[in-house]
Amino acid sequence: ADTFHFTAASRASLPRNMIENTMFEEEPDVVDLAKDSTAFPALEPDEVVYEPRSSRLLVRGLGENDLDDEEEDYESSARLLGMSFMNRSSTHNSSSSPYNRQAPPRLCSCPSARMLVVGVFILVLVASMAMALYFLPGCTFTKAGCGKANSSIPMEPSYPNSTNGELFPWNELRLPASVRPVNYDLSLTPNLTSMTFTGRTVINMTILHDTKRIVLHSSELIITKATFQVGEDKSVEVKVLEYKPWQQIAVSFLEDLKVGQVCVLTLDYAANLSHTYDGFYNSSYNDKTGAKRVLAATQFEPQAARKAFPCFDEPAFKATFLVRITREPGYITLSNMPQAKTTTLPSGLLEDEFEQTAVNMSTYLVAFIVANFTSITRNVSNTLVSVYSVPEKKEHTHYALDTASTLLHFYNTFFHIDYPLRKLDLVAIPDFLAGAMENWGLITFRETSLLVGNQSSPLDKQLIANVVAHELAHQWFGNLVTMRWWNDLWLNEGFATYWQYTSLMTEFPQLDLDNVFLGVRFKAMAKDSLNSSHPVSVSSQVTTPEQVSEMFDSVTYEKGASLLLMLKTTLPDGQFRKGIIKYLDNYRGSNTVTEDLWNSLTQVGVQESVSDMMRTWTLQNGFPLVTVSRKGGHVTLTQEPFLLSADNATHTSNLWHIPVTYVNDNCSSAPSCRQIFTLRNKTATLNVSDSVKWLKLNYMNTGFYIVHYGDEGWATLIDALKTDINTLTPHDRASLIHNIFALSRLGRVSFRQVLNLLDYTTNETETAPLTEALSQLSSVYRLLDKRQEQRLLARMKVYIWGHFGQLMDSQDWGEEESVSRQELRSVLLEMACSLGRQNCTDQATALYDQWTNSNQTKQIPGDLQQVVFSTAAQADLRWLSLMEAYSSTTYDSEKRKILQALASTQDPRSIVWILSTGLEGGIIQTQELPLVISTVSDGFAGHLLVWDFVKENWDRIIEKFPVGSYPIQSIIKSTTSQFSTQTHLEEVQGFFSSLKERGSQMRSVQESLETIRLNQLWMDRNLPTLRIWL
Ligand SMILES: [Zn+2]
């Protein structure tokens, strides 16, 4: 499921990210349980001997947080003795939501009294075991054991208790590998009046290894009947055990099921339609007449298919699916495949049956919908493309259909593999948490991510195109070839994000995506410059639902995409595409790990050294800082990790193979000027002609690193820009601005030097560098604002007016065709108006009044709506009229902008109202709460209120948005990232540590604490400079 907070529209609507970096001080990957066991799923033959492993996981997988070293030693010694002496089921129960990435810090490693007791106990054990051995000649603790009586004792794992009190026959979060589902036959009967459903799931499976148990997932389903059939035998009723904390059910057998046997498990069940945003959930909206209409839809990624039907809910368990759904007349149903037939049932209800999926697919990609939607359609090659919406928004679906058709054709051609299904539906769901979800053949969207009026601005359309391009790319990267487990989620999301920009830059160059992609790379670096960021390909434990949810973050999406861009620009033309086609072809229909990607590249002739290079980027977190120092023709490059909190020494020896690109003053802006030098060691020297005046590294900022040129190097570059701005490309200028702010945050350059560089911007007119400069400045402004540094704020305004005021005032407020110009104008004007520049606020207010006086017929240009609405929202009466407009508009992009404007009010009463209304749902949909919270957090009036609000309502918030999920990450980040004092640091720390299993261990919490510390440090370091120089 994808969130799209980082596309152009939101970036333009005012830079939110500078010092709000993410951060982690813990190394997230320290826990040892690495690849060898649970990190990779089930289907590898060498993994299937699960008995010994399970006994190990009794220690590791379960309540491992509770284990001290000595306890662990104790257990392993005892295990060596073949003892099954500890039933840890009490621990299992208490760890129902285990969140065990990180063991609590140990204060003392010296042996404790307990250790002594344990030691004595072990001695006694050893002695008694030795005696037992002595008196039982012939019995050894070899695999064969000593006959029946004894053989079951060694390695007997400890199992948790099922709901009915019996032992549950499995004790790992990951499923055993002994059984493989082949086909699911799903029948669902939802009742949209009682908001319940019943279902029958028939699972055909084959036995891969002899086993006495079948274990699969099920959550919040009441199993009413279960039957089991082996081969041609008669089917028999079986008992289903359930272990709720891990959402697993199991059937045990007295006799082994044998390798190669084919079995059928049939489960009848009943459940409530979910009230949250995942599983099979109910949703509603008000139609034109104001009547409430209900519908039911699904959202399964990452782990909620189990809430709709019992299944082997891990991405590597691919199978085919046949779906049947019962509905009332007046509704339609949709699923991944085209409808095969409709039958009228004796009850008068209708049953729609869909074709069996033509492809093997992962459970998280299954989807179905029952609603009263209407659609428009078009044929593209052999695929019928449709866009569905609620009937009243049908006329907003055309842009999505056009875009999807063009992109489907593009991907079919580019990847050399046709989209494999006969239909592709894109559906706008009124209540939808993510931005969109790439279910195979049935992509679901938030209305704001799919629907756009024909007269909407290109900037609004750019957002839709982004989401559609991303989700369509997933039909290959994710659906056809799927990561084996969530630790390699970047193989889905990094690629989909990369293709999203690449396909649009090719097919819709007028949408100006290269600027957006540049911003995305900057954003990924902000997150990745913190100590406990994670590698793109995570080698450590990603097991609990929270850990899985947390994989959906900026590193996975945006750093993943950035690394692919770096790879592509390093390879000779065409080779990247060749390698990608090879990868898709090699693994279509199956699952992959990151190494498979590198192997595919090697197969098309990419040098092994490139794979080695990429491993240095995907397997370690962070990225390098390259420092340039020059003596005549000798240029020395030195690399070190770019770490904002440099107190952590563990990463400082990290090295990357950096494809350093550079241009010089003789040839600096054309692509042909670019030269490459691979920096593999800590330092290296390259030679240039003595006559070269300056070098600019990281041409077009396609590499994922930051460059420090030294005092002299910066000075010559700044001079060069002041002499001729066009000596560097706009992206290179943006890259310099980004890098120097980053270096100042790192403490390597003074803020004085930052301001020196920015002086050239009085001549700047391009979108990318200006957007970057304003984004950075506004983050600084916001931090100072939260500290109420009034005098500095006043001077900073003067500074901003001095550098950008003229440009702001010269902006046109009429229609504008160029997306790039729209982006620039909206960023400039939003800053101007939010800082109260009279010229701006007068124009905005006039446009707003025209709009309301004309009964909203006199349109405001789409890219100016945000600044106009937000300015209007600062006056009480206009705020009220905006509220009315919010309730009545059917234009989703407009609605979202109005909501942001409403939330930007500085009136505390309105802020409190809008927060509680957002949490309540109804007038403001709960799905919009993260947006409301982040908007309120940016303003001075609300930033403390909103933090209190989040603390007070934490339990209700995590009911709506799962712990670890993107909305929760966003809520934590936006409410805490502008704090910069010790008091706030302690308060944030105190609050989250009080949460325990309700979220205290989230990566975003570490991130938030590190950000506050860095803000504090930044203030200490820079306030004096700012006072002098601003
Ligand atoms: Zn995605």
Automatic annotation (TrEMBL):
The record marks 557 as: Transition state stabilizer. Its main location: membrane. One of its GO terms (molecular function) is metalloaminopeptidase activity. Residues 399-617 form the Peptidase M1 membrane alanine aminopeptidase domain. Its cofactor is Zn(2+). Zn(2+) binds at residues 470, 474, 493. The keyword Metal-binding applies. Residues 694-1013 form the ERAP1-like C-terminal domain. It is a single-pass type II membrane protein. This is Leucyl/cystinyl aminopeptidase. The lineage of its organism: Eukaryota, Metazoa, Chordata, Craniata, Vertebrata. The gene is LOC109895999.
